[in-house]
């Protein structure tokens, strides 16, 4: 019987495109939502929202990068 041939696959080619550890689509949605929140409220405290949303997305995509 013939043995299986192993072909190396680069992990970067099988993972989704990410930006700062989160999927790119999640990053864009986070950016748009955070910008809208800042423009509506006009408070510097609303600038913490993107950091919070990014951390939630980062933690969620640690085990499964295609969660979003």
Structure characterization notes:
This protein is mainly α. The protein has a domain at 16-60. Helices cover 51% and strands 6% of the residues. It is built from 3 helices and 2 strands. The protein has helices at residues 11-14, 24-41, 48-60, and strands at 18-19, 22-23. Strands 1-2 form a two-stranded antiparallel ribbon. β1 and β2 (22-23) form a beta hairpin. α2 runs antiparallel to α3. The mean pLDDT is 90.
Which helices and strands appear, and what pairs or packs with what?
Layout: H1 11-14, E1 18-19, E2 22-23, H2 24-41, H3 48-60
Antiparallel strand pairs: 1-2
Based on Cα principal axes, name the global outline.
rod-shaped
The number of helical segments is 3
Structural class: mainly alpha
Order of helices and strands: HEEHH
Mean of residue pLDDT?
90
Helix percent band: 40-55%
Low-confidence stretches: none
């Amino acid at each position: 019987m013939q043995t299986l041939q192993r072909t190396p696959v680069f992990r970067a080619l099988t993972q989704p495109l990410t930006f700062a550890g989160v999927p790119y689509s999640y990053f864009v949605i986070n950016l748009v939502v955070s910008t809208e929140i800042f423009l509506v409220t006009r408070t510097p405290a609303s600038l913490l929202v993107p950091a919070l949303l990014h951390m939630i997305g980062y933690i969620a995509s640690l085990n499964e990068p295609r969660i979003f």
